[in-house]
Amino acid sequence: MNDALQIFACNSNRALAAEICHKLGLRLSPLEISRFSNDNLHVQIQENVRERDVYVIQSFTEPVSDHIMELFITLDALRSASARRVTAVIPYYSYARSDKKDAPRISITGRLIADMLKTAGADRVLTMDLHADQVHGFFSVPVDHLTAIPTIADYFRDNHDLGNMVAVATDAGGAKRVGRFSERLGIPMAIIDKRRVSDTQVKQGEVVGQVAGRDVVIFEDEISTGGTLVSTIETLKRAGARTVHAGAVHGVLCGPAIERLRAAEIESIVVTNTVNVPSEKHFEKLTVLTVAPLLAAAIERIHSGASVGALFE
Ligand code: R5P
Predict the structure, then answer these.
(1) Which of 42, 126, 167, 286 has the most CB atoms around it within 10 Å of its CB?
(2) How many whole angstroms from 153 Cα to the centroid of ligand 1?
């Protein structure tokens, strides 16, 4: 295989792709994405990729279907252009939330998209903090599943007094994730009983664990419409929490999220740039950390055949 590695980016998060390239000392390889007058997408790879190790960066953010199609067509174009190995780098895999048959006659779309990535030409996938660990098993190509838990935990260690802090899971499904976060910080954890009422609303019950008089950090895989976070803040305040902070890997921040979070009784919110957060969504309580160094290190290791797991040891 030609020794060079090449990085391409579709349209969802070019800022992150540029940062990754900067870390690797590479330039972003050119591709052109356009539309025919009938709305069909058209992708052209604009340099030679024959026998190269190629990476395509694309998060599944709004407009999700367009961004997924851009990635499929790019993967197919790279394969047709004789790339030696193609890795789909998907920092945010939104369809991981469609991971089970929890209603009659529905699709487990997280698995469907995994199949389609392989069909389109992905030889490998590099992704981060899937909604549930077992979604990894939907893929029949090798997957490197990174986590930003250490990145966010280290930020809290550097910027807060942890003496009175408790980490909180918004539901039982998030308990393992919060366990890893609280372990890294050496703080206790609590769990809230949550039921989802609709796409944008949740209902919460008891808090299991001590939060009265404590500084609490809610930890999540993603903040989407902000419904879960706002409900959790209210539950924790009722239970006597002194201050509330939040950390989440994917700052999807869609629909009413920003309006809800601005009005919420919360001190600070920390997300990463797996999803591009445009400047109009920034507000004083929001901090966006970068995962570019982590993704760049993983790409370097995949390319050279070194261990990716060793990044977290
Ligand atoms: C759900 O199980 C996830 O961990 C998050 O709580 C959820 O995706 C957040 O969505 P929203 O912000 O719309 O409540």
Answers:
(1) 167
(2) 19
What is the bridge-based pairing of β-strands 53-57 and 41-45? Answer: unpaired
Atom of ligand 1 nearest to the CA of 226: 12
Domains parsed from the chain with CATH numbers: 5-147+292-312 (3.40.50.2020), 149-289 (3.40.50.2020)
241-283 pLDDT per residue, tens: 999 999 999 999 999 999 999 999 999 999 999 999 999 999 9
* 226 in contact with ligand 1, CB cutoff 6 A: yes
Distance of CA 28 to the CA centre of its chain: 21
HSE value, Cβ hemisphere, 13 Å, CA-based, for 215: 11
| Active-site residue flag, 203 | no
Q: Is the pTM of this model over 0.70?
A: yes
The position carrying tokens 């990145």 is: 151
Nearest to 249, CA basis, from 290, 225, 221, 218: 221
Q: Is 180 within 8 Å of 157 (Cβ atoms)?
A: no
pLDDT digit string, tens, across residues 28-50: 999 999 999 999 999 999 999 99
Write down the catalytic residue from 101, 176, 194, 281: 194
Which residue among 168, 224, 260 has the greatest number of ligand 1 atoms within 8 angstroms of its CB, and so is best to mutate?
224
